[in-house]
UniProtKB/TrEMBL annotation, chain A:
Keywords: 4Fe-4S, Electron transport, Iron, Iron-sulfur, Membrane, Metal-binding, Transmembrane, Transmembrane helix, Transport. This is Cytochrome C oxidase. It comes from the Bacteria. One of its GO terms (molecular function) is 4 iron, 4 sulfur cluster binding.
Amino acid sequence: MSSPSPKPQQAQKSKAPQSSDTLYESRKKLYVRAVTGVFANWRWALVWITQILFYGLPWLSWNDRQAVLFHLAERKFYIFGTVFWPQDVFFLAILLIISAYALFFFTAIAGRLWCGYACPQTVYTEIFMWIEQKIEGDHIRRQKLDQAPMSANKLFRRSAKFLVWGLVALWTGFTFVAYFSPTSELLEAARTFSFGPWELFWILFYGAFTFLFAGVLREQVCKYMCPYARFQAVMFDPDTLVITYDEARGEPRGVRKKGVDPRSLGKGDCIDCGICVQVCPTGIDIRDGLQYECIGCAACIDACDQVMDKMNYPRGLIRYTTENALKKNWGNKEIVAHVFRPRTLIYGTVLAVVCLAFVWGLASRDPLRVDVIRDRASLAREVEGGQIENVYRLHVMNMAESTRTFTFEVSGLPGVKIAGGPPRIEVGPASTQSVTLQVLVPYDAGKPGSNEIEFLITAEDDPSLSLREETTFLLPR
Amino acid sequence: MLKLIQVLWPSFAVAALAEAVFFTVIDPQELYLFGQVVHYGALATYSIAFLGFWLVCAASSLSTLFLQRSAADINRRN
Ligand code: SF4
Ligand code: SF4
């Protein structure tokens, strides 16, 4: 928008809404310069790893089923050999705690590692920028193309870019849905284009947002939408490794000829080339100090190191270092020694304990679960021979990876028995089977009202695997 | 644009959370809609519920935004 910006005094009066409004509207489009180097390689390695996992996992199978599937219709989460049921919500809670503590831990040690290297927003932006660069050229050409009037060339490049972005986004949407709805069914639907309406909706929804976030919004997502960016500073302390411009060494910055000793000119090592700003995906100048917009991607380190190499200056004018190290002139040894400090030790211990609890909980999960539900429609019914009948539905959940047969016994009242003799039912691997049992008790076996009885469910192939479930038996008054 | 994001984005995040908590506890097959057992497919139920949550949360964000206007903003309008 080219409306006149509010005058300073005016802006101050109604400060908050005004300033953020203008922030959004007058956002300058960034033309981020591509960068190579050690950290760029790390970022690309993580792009590959995370995306091979993300795009690949829905295609893997395990025991004749999709290896990783959050099967909404069955209300079961399959993760390789482990199946999570709604009853396992406890594990989900622990998993959340683990993620939170891992985030605290890594942030305390080295700042926004997650943001810079692994966050999907960073990863997809990286992929989309690479595509943009291949089709529209480097940052200078892209800016020229943006300013140029519409031409056949511009139209062609624009459409090509949007097309490729669109395809990647669609594929991402498809993959996302394949985590919730089996891939095989989706593929079949794709072949004949007969997706269910909601599957189609979510593919397009997720795809559209991938396109929007990675192609258009980019750094704005980190700056305005991400909650983590707002509070990550809480986990920083003076021993946290952050990407820092060494002001003492760099200033006073200035242009100079190669081969001249900067000190003889009264200058620092920064040649004020501005490349660190050009490569920054959030468009900030790291030389202004640590800012909340900095996602810790280390692109400016790679860029500046190349400049330093060209100038024959030592690398690391911008580098990972800590506030204390900079102040007290520490070397690497002291920095490493300060990685172990109360904060990281506490985060680390909690993380380790919770991880252990998770593994232990998984290992000691019951391989058999049973829900007993009284049939509410027919409470107590008198049947022939002076017996009283109560009806129960038993949901038998077999957590094991093999088919099992279970038998049922009942006890707790004299003469109690299951009508038609003790049943056997077969339950497939990691699935549920319901069985209806009619339990008979002689009329005078207990007091009127509710009486405690107990079902005993035993696996036929492994008698040690058994479960007692209590319930009540109603006798008429 | 800013207002739109301010309304839609936090409500989206909270709706996702609400959806997760709600459906871990409640099986969609146990739901009733106007006295009838919900008979949509699982994905449809989850999706409609999510959009519903989103709508409710967005309404809340919208009200916050509406009530947050300063006196100056309101006076200028009139
Ligand atoms: S890249 Fe290095 S030398 Fe160039 S402006 Fe940035 S800090 Fe200075
Ligand atoms: S300042 Fe450097 S590390 Fe921070 S976002 Fe910009 S390029 Fe990445």
